[in-house]
């Protein structure tokens, strides 16, 4: 019996990963991953193929989605803050009408946003909308990585990370917010209503976190928990140790799930390596027990 390597957050070219589902599974097999959740942004397009490949490779498969959401938090001083939150949804029913409609609207608004970003960048760089489309697999969820890939293809940059650092920093003239995505609390309810298990992806990740743990937004987390949040992806390269510790304590307090994952985007999509952070079998079992909307492909 090999020891379990459970990676609960992986992307393919059905969203912004640079590898096909087949390439992802081959890489997962080579990396010794024993269970993998495919969690492309706002789509379930890769699930059917992943199920087949999971059987072939004898790797466990958990169907998932990384749902783009926008939080609306009222601070103690009455100020409203809005920021993006990625919500992993494990085992939701892909045919649930409300969830499917929310994802459709979200993907549509991503495209509007990406066109606007492309237009702004095209004023300063050699770039067209068809260059961007050329970087997207048919039916894939559009995102800024496709713009980055087009700029790389046109010779402006070498790496996605470089484009994010130089063009997509906070306050950049090329920054356009995504307005068509569900509010975080609503997304949690939608996912639960579709039989899914909502787990926040890389909470308070690098660059988004308050500096001091005394400023961590506890009330915001309590509101999400009350709405049905199942847990936190505390073990992820973008979640710093003091944040992870805070999340683990919060999970203990409310008996929630803690996961760990790579957030793999292909060999040269991001530096994240398959299996670099993992989830325990106990935690996976708790997710499988709660997930009612679709079925996993389990090994053995
Ligand atoms: P979008 O979906 O348009 O909001 O773009 C966000 C996506 O860009 C995330 O899901 C990441 O996969 C990717 N991303 C963000 N920062 C970086 C980076 N520094 N290097 C490579 N990819 C990144
Ligand atoms: Fe991504
Ligand atoms: Fe994410
Ligand atoms: Zn991700």
Describe this structure as you would to a colleague.
This protein has ten helices and seven strands. The chain has 300 residues and is an alpha/beta fold. Helix 1 packs parallel to helix 2. The N and C termini lie close together (11 Å).
Give the C-alpha Rg: 19 Å
Beta content comes to 15-25%
Report how far apart the termini are: 11 Å
Helicity level: 25-40%
Q: How many helices does DSSP assign?
A: 10
Query: Helix- and strand-based class?
Result: alpha/beta
Following the backbone from N to C, one meets helices and strands in this order, namely: EHEHEEHHHHHEHEHEH
- The strand count comes to 7
Bound molecules: adenosine monophosphate, fe (iii) ion, zinc ion
Order of adjacent strands in the largest pleated sheet: 1-2-3-4-5-6-7
Overall pLDDT, averaged?
A: 96
Shape type: globular
Which blocks of ≥5 consecutive residues have pLDDT under 50?
A: none
Question: How can the largest sheet be summarized?
Answer: 7 strands, mixed
